[in-house]
Amino acid sequence: IKFSDEDEWLDFLELTLADWLEQVEGAAEKKNELFQWEIGEAWSYRRFAYQQMAQILSFYRSPRLQRAVVMHQDVFAMESDKTRHLHQPITPPMSDAAREARAAVASSMLEDDVE
Question: What is the pTM of this model?
């Protein structure tokens, strides 16, 4: 995504973080086959990226979003200990074609190691 300036990028971060903080608890309550999540695993989705978004917004959008880090911590404090060690850094494949493409890329990486 190309942004016109820093403010537009920060707006995008704010919207993205707020949206996920509002949804993550509910998303974690059920299995999601599309995202390949078992119950509770939604918490792992881009865990560190959302934490960094909160830190960036707390700094650059202070004083209005000075509490972004605390809000992030409050939401993630509801997570079960069972999933706190998990981290899913990328979006899971959302279709059979995407799964096949990802498997092909992974396979080609293994083949390169053998040669």
Answer: 0.82
